[in-house]
Amino acid sequence: MPYETPQPAFVLVRPQMGENIGAAARAMLNFGLDRMRLVAPRDGWPNPQAVAMASGAGRLLDEALLADDLAGAVADCHFVIATTARMRGLTKPVFSPERAMAETARRVAAGERVAVLFGPERAGLENADVACANAVVTVPVNPDFASLNLAQCVLLLAYEWRRATADVVAERTDMARADWASHQEVERLADHYEAQMQEAGFFFPETKAESMRTNLRNMWSRMPLTQADVRMLHGVLRQMVRWKQRDG
After folding, report:
1. Are 186 and 221 in contact, with CB atoms under 8 Å apart?
2. What number of other Cβ atoms are within 10 A of residue 184's Cβ?
3. Are 187 and 161 contained in the same domain?
4. Which helix (H) or strand (E) holds 82?
């Protein structure tokens, strides 16, 4: 069953290799997209190589809309974006992938149907294909090697779609069944180390002892310690003291 989430259709125009169609399906499903449309696949349809490469995303291939030409594939769409790495001599809005998917998300949320076109592997979309689009999306790739694999291009746009429509956390810490140490627990750890370092004669000369203690306290306060970290560091110091006492 297709996802109920409104989303764009990804249209593969005259794709040549079944493996790339399957890889594109897998990339789409990775990011919650399942509206694939195929325009005149070179090797016919269905394609066993596509199924093998889809690796779990086979339902996208089963549900893919098959069209004889581009006009038929996008006939129901309100806005069409063409992917291309080359200047075409056509006056069009040119989006970055991020901007293209933000605009797509805005239009889809407003109830519009949006299609994103991907060209065949050999040379990409033809000028006639791009002329049918309302806008172009271009990836900022190395100008000396601008060609992207079909599935890679699909993956990149699918990722930007996900970023535009999902709550993507920029950074997080997985706690692995641990809790952060409290300020009091860190203070006790600092006290433990400071006492042992005092006994070992670390704070020398006396004129620098106070600034050395301050720097150590500052170091402990900067460290993001879990309760497990604190217990381990207490244990490390106790064992070192026991070892020194045995040695003495």
Report:
1. yes
2. 8
3. no
4. strand 79-83
